[in-house]
Write a structure and sequence with these properties.
The complex is a heterodimer. By secondary structure, chain A is of the alpha/beta class. Chain A contains three helices and eight strands, in the order αββββαβαβββ. In chain A, the strands form two sheets. In chain A, strands 4-3-2-5-8 form a five-stranded mixed β-sheet, covered by helices on one side. A two-stranded antiparallel ribbon of chain A has the order 6-7. In chain A, helix 2 runs parallel beside helix 3. By secondary structure, chain B is α/β, with parallel strands linked by helices. Helices cover 34% and strands 18% of the residues of chain B. A six-stranded mixed β-sheet of chain B has the order 1-6-5-2-3-4, with helices on one face. In chain B, strand 2 and strand 3 form a beta hairpin. In chain B, helix 2 packs across helix 4. The termini of chain B are far apart. In chain B, 29% of the residues are buried. Classes of the chains: A alpha/beta, B alpha/beta. Strand 1 of chain A pairs antiparallel with strand 6 of chain B, so a sheet runs across the interface.
């Protein structure tokens, strides 16, 4: 007599399938939750400063002859003004239309200014009241950030005082000159 | 003719594996996008941000939100905005060109921040430091409005502004 095998008999074996329905349920719930809470607009920041009065003594650097770089923004025109803090002041003005092409040319000029004055990393922006924020942000973009095709510039490390290469910024410090009492 | 009626002995099964593959890829993508952004922030539907090539990520939620029609400080509506300007009657006792209600709210935040810093930091140099403020503003507003808000913040001892923009490729 044939002995019965322990366990599952061959003739009773059917196709074994993994029940994936609970797995799909979990995935659906997770997907729904993630899609609802996801943010698809990538936001970033442009950091600027406003001038402020301080009782602290003037830093020694102020007594040196340094270059002041200013941008005057109007609705249809942008002007770069460069001037040394001490004589000979050598004031120079460069005008550009407030257009995409004008901003590109302004950026090229700022790169040239920055290359000629590697220690100068601060720029002051003045704007007229009727210039819209969209236009100001485009000017800030051109003045603050380095393009991929631009040369890598040096930036002073605030902690160590040493000059370091910066891949990201053209003029890292931007002061909103118009915001003053 | 094939039929699915009770008479037919064929069983139809739906192949769910491709759907599982899609779900898995979608979940991996969503989880990855979660981990790359330090702060994820939903932009208010009442405003449109300007584009920028900045690579600097948002590190804190905006304290000031200026939509097309309102100004919020920490999610609290402070004043209205009409045609890019705050109505004269809402400017309050104008403080050096600023907006009084905005100044009052920011001063309250500044004082609270100072108390926290005083209680947690021992370095006197840190105590005197001015604060930073994150601001989100509709791209169509004029600089005059931005200047008023910045002046109000300046009076409340905020001198660094992190202006929120939409990031685009350089």
């Amino acid at each position: 007599m044939r002995r019965k095998r322990k366990g599952i008999k061959r003739q009773d074996m059917t196709d074994i399938e993994l029940n994936i329905i609970p797995f799909i349920d979990v995935f659906s719930m997770l997907n729904t939750f993630l899609l609802f809470s996801a943010v698809f607009v990538a936001t970033g920041i442009i950091e600027v400063q406003v001038p402020f009065l301080s009782n602290a003594p003037q830093p020694k650097e102020e007594s040196q002859r340094t270059l002041d770089v200013k941008i005057d923004a109007a609705k249809d025109k942008i002007q770069i003004i460069t001037e040394f803090t001490k004589d000979p002041k050598n004031e120079q003005k460069f005008d550009f239309p407030n257009t995409k092409d004008g901003l590109a040319r302004m950026h090229e000029r700022l790169v040239a200014i920055r290359q000629a004055n590697p220690t100068q990393d601060k720029l002051t922006l003045f704007s007229e009241d009727d210039v819209i924020w969209d236009s100001i942000s485009a000017i800030l973009d051109s003045a603050k950030f380095r393009k991929q095709t631009d040369p890598i510039l040096a930036v002073k490390n605030e902690k160590t005082g040493a000059m370091e290469q910066d891949q990201q910024f053209l003029f890292p410090k931007i002061v909103m000159g118009s915001v003053i009492l | 003719m094939a039929s699915v009626g009770g008479g037919s002995k064929e069983t139809l099964t739906l192949n769910l594996y491709p759907m599982l593959d899609i779900f898995s890829i979608l979940i991996v993508f969503l989880l990855m996008s979660y981990s790359t952004d330090p702060v994820s922030h939903d932009v208010n539907s009442g405003l449109e941000l300007p584009d920028s090539v900045t690579m600097v990520s948002l590190d804190e939620l905006p304290a000031i939100v200026v939509t097309k029609s309102e100004i919020f400080v920490n999610d609290k509506k402070v004043v209205d905005v009409v045609n890019g300007e705050v109505p004269k009657e809402q400017l309050g006792e104008s403080y050096q060109g600023g907006i009084r209600p905005v100044y009052d709210e920011l001063k309250r935040i500044s004082e609270a921040n100072k108390r926290i810093v005083a209680a947690t930091v021992n370095d006197p140099a840190q105590l005197g430091k001015s604060g930073a403020l994150t601001m989100e503003m509709d791209k169509g507003h004029p600089f005059k409005l931005m200047k008023r808000i910045m002046l109000s913040a300046q009076q409340a001892e905020f001198v660094t502004f992190k202006l929120v923009v939409t990031r685009v490729e350089n």
